[in-house]
Design goal:
Strand 6 and strand 7 (102-106) form a beta hairpin. The protein has a 4-stranded antiparallel beta sheet with strand order 1-6-7-5, with helices on one face. By secondary structure, it is an alpha+beta fold. It is built from 5 helices and 10 strands, in the order H-E-E-E-E-E-E-E-E-H-H-H-H-E-E. The protein has helices spanning 4-18, 141-148, 155-159, 170-180, 193-212; strands at 23-28, 51-55, 58-62, 67-71, 77-81, 91-97, 102-106, 113-117, 253-257, 260-264. The chain folds into 2 domains: 4-123, N-terminal domain of MutM-like DNA repair proteins (Alpha-Beta Barrel); 141-264, Orthogonal Bundle (Helicase, Ruva Protein, domain 3), CATH 1.10.8.
């Protein structure tokens, strides 16, 4: 699933080509996504896209008439193509722009969404209860430590909770916990404030670096030009079960936690 770095990579990739351009036409080839594409999306036609922002793993295309709320689901991508480019089977939504380009939502598994909002986006049920952005003010070790009080859930599950902080998916949770030296199964409420400071910084550093590397490609993610991300070439934990730890060379341990692969070093993480 595209995580925060992949979604931010997508936002930056389409920004210059879409922002301040008018939507000449909206075509919906398949409405049956995770939530049905509303007929009201046609209201986007004739509107100028004034900005493209991100909230967690959601992209928001703002216009004077409303906001398109886009999620890439498990395997989706937004791609910019010329009008004559043949449409692929899973190209479900197209925006024809006055720049001469077409923005296409490609989503083979149809777990994404392309909604239309005419009320403030931060009031929408999908966004209203989200935690702070990990790369913005409001997120730090103190925030994590305060919210962790009394929590017995594993710290990995805690930082992946979008009500605690948005956008820390499985890959980056593994990586941040390894960098901070924290065992992923340790109870969230049994971690000190100082260690949460280290973890918050690790989350920031990992996400920032991954964005710079274009995200992580493990299955389906490609950027707006159809290119993969490269952070997967530098992973310290995720996907490395049984391989030598990059610090102590002991074999990395892999377990299932909440149905997700969790990889850590029994020596370096405690």
């Amino acid at each position: 699933m595209p995580e925060l770095p992949e979604v931010e990579t997508t936002r930056r990739g389409i920004l210059d080509a879409v922002q301040n351009h008018r939507v000449l036409n909206v075509q919906v080839h398949e409405r049956r996504l995770r939530w049905p594409v509303p007929a009201e999306l046609a209201q986007m036609q004739g509107q100028r896209v004034t900005d493209i922002t991100r909230r967690g793993k959601y992209l928001l295309l703002h216009t004077g008439a409303g906001t398109a709320l886009v999620h890439l689901g498990m395997s989706g991508s937004l791609r910019l193509v010329s009008p004559g480019t043949p449409r692929k089977t899973h190209d479900h939504v197209e925006l024809m722009l006055d720049s001469g380009l077409v923005l296409r939502l490609h989503d083979p598994r149809r777990f994404g969404c392309f909604l239309w909002l005419t009320t403030p986006p931060d009031e929408h049920p999908l966004l209203a209860d989200l935690g702070p952005e990990p790369l913005e003010d409001g997120f730090d070790g103190g925030w994590l430590h305060r919210l962790s009080h009394g929590r017995s859930a594993p710290v990995k599950n805690f930082i992946m909770d979008s009500h605690v902080v948005v956008g820390v998916g499985n890959i980056y949770a593994n990586e941040a916990l390894f960098r901070a030296g924290i065992h992923p199964l340790r109870a969230a409420g049994r971690i000190s404030a100082a260690r949460y400071d280290s973890l918050a910084q690790a989350i920031r550093d990992i996400l920032t670096y991954a964005i710079g590397r274009g995200g992580t490609t493990l299955r389906d993610f490609v950027n707006t030009q159809g290119e993969p991300g490269y952070f997967q070439l530098e992973l310290d934990a995720y996907g490395r079960g049984g391989e030598p730890c990059h610090r102590c060379l002991r074999p990395m341990k892999e377990v299932r936690l909440g149905g997700r692969s969790t990889v850590f070093c029994t020596q370096c993480q405690h």
